[in-house]
């Protein structure tokens, strides 16, 4: 199982790989970062189960808490980097956002949500494809205060990282180190992304 990633998941470099993947995923989503997080958590759970059965847990498997910490921290740092770039973007970025209906709508909805203390939109968007990028860009371009954006970004990062690690971990424990375990976990991750995308794009009812 996971021949191509086996050496990486059994190396301390897995934490660097996870952090860089999550950090850069907001700009260059070459490999969905959730795939790497789930793969590492699955390997850790399966190896830990096998080690426990044999009477010893191997030391060369990823630590679940470290995976969670790396993924959540990198998620917040990536959000803040894009937020600050959008804050300083200037007229060119403003014109680009004005030409994008998606970004304009996100900016309006996000501004309303944050001003009302309902930044749960930031958390939901973290699970949607490209939602993290759109929300961070919109918050920065709208010059939302960092104290309004950062707590919700942190909550979103912890929620997403916790969900991804839990999928891989429990999938590995229940189904073992197999492509089936990874596939089921990824399906659950993509299902959450599809649900989040639906909630983010759903028109809000008009209010008086």
From TrEMBL:
Q: Identify the domain of life.
A: Bacteria
Q: Which Pfam families match?
A: VTT_dom
Which InterPro entries does the annotation name?
DedA-like (IPR032818), VTT_dom (IPR032816)
Q: What is this entry's stated membrane topology?
A: Multi-pass membrane protein
Q: What is its main location?
A: membrane
- Residues annotated as domain VTT: 58-169
The alphabetized UniProt keywords are: Cell membrane, Membrane, Transmembrane, Transmembrane helix
**Compartment(s):** Cell membrane
Listed transmembrane segments: 12-28, 64-86, 149-171, 177-200
Tell me the protein family, please.
Belongs to the DedA family.
- Protein name, please? DedA family protein
The species this protein belongs to is Streptomyces longisporoflavus
